[in-house]
Design goal:
CATH architecture of the domain at 40-143: 3 Solenoid
Number of strands: 14
CATH topology of the domain at 40-143: UDP N-Acetylglucosamine Acyltransferase, domain 1
Structural class: alpha/beta
Strand content: 15-25%
Radius of gyration: 15 Å
């Protein structure tokens, strides 16, 4: 079920139409019902998916996510102390459970981030990374996360 994402979309509609109080209501409704901080002010592309309804997931208010992104449970996307901007995440990105993505960084397209990874530097497109601190496991991968079968 995609109820948290539907609530985000409704809240984002209100946010983009400068109706801040209803937008904030839907943000807090998501927090109360599902334990996910999915602010209406974030910009999230089509076909966005949250693992396990986003339990424990925190997404910064200014986050930009591309299309076909899947974010697992207990993921944090935010800003580093002293930074003014937050991560910009490309299309077809998978972020594994318990990962932390923070700072003024860019995550490219077709990126897979393994579980419990700490991401604080740019990641090029078509890359698989994992670890704390993260290490590049594979580059120039042509398959998207949803095309992998093993």
């Amino acid at each position: 079920m995609k109820i948290p994402i539907y609530l985000y979309r409704i809240g984002h509609f209100f946010y983009t139409n400068k109706l801040r109080i209803p937008a904030l209501f839907f943000t807090y409704l998501n927090k109360f019902l599902f334990g996910v901080w999915l602010p209406s002010s974030a910009i999230i592309g089509k076909n966005f998916t949250l693992g396990y309804w986003g339990i424990g997931t925190v997404i910064h208010n200014n986050t930009v996510l591309g299309i076909n992104c899947l974010i697992s449970q207990n993921v944090t996307i935010g800003r580093n102390f002293g930074d003014k901007n937050v991560p910009i995440i490309g299309n077809n990105v998978y972020i594994g459970a318990g990962s932390v993505v923070f700072g003024e960084i860019r995550i490219g397209n077709n990126v897979i981030i393994g579980a419990n990874s700490l991401i604080n530097k740019n990641i090029q497109s078509n890359t698989i990374v994992a670890g704390n601190p993260f290490k590049i496991l594979k580059t120039q991968t042509t398959k998207k996360y949803f095309e992998l079968d093993d």
